[in-house]
């Protein structure tokens, strides 16, 4: 069975979902393929800095994530043996383009926020890619279930 898609994104991780949401905000629909049967939540959290928050704002989910994650104002490192502070770094200093914004984001909440903003049917779960071949101006994306997606553009390993 062959199916036509303009854009195919392989992987429903942070990069794949953010790419899809950014395209959606521009009025471009893409299909996200995920080999798992649901969003894969590995790891717990990640530290996001100012540029990451600018990107999250650009795709429209920055404010909702800010409400769920506290901002860091300083990073203190202490010795576990003596309890003496060994170094300190302030995030309150102004950066080249304004204030710094540093927060630790729960990976699961980030993935869910991205997925929630996408139109229904954008993410296709249980869709394992077995090969991709070039056919003229198109890419043929072969799935394990025998489906072939004919795409104008594809993005791998997001």
TrEMBL record:
Annotated ranges, domain FAD-binding: 6-132
One MF annotation (Gene Ontology) recorded for this entry: FAD binding
Origin: domain of life: Eukaryota
Keywords: Monooxygenase, Oxidoreductase
Recorded family membership: Belongs to the 3-hydroxybenzoate 6-hydroxylase family.
Name of the protein in its database record: Monooxygenase 3
Organism of this sequence: Quercus suber
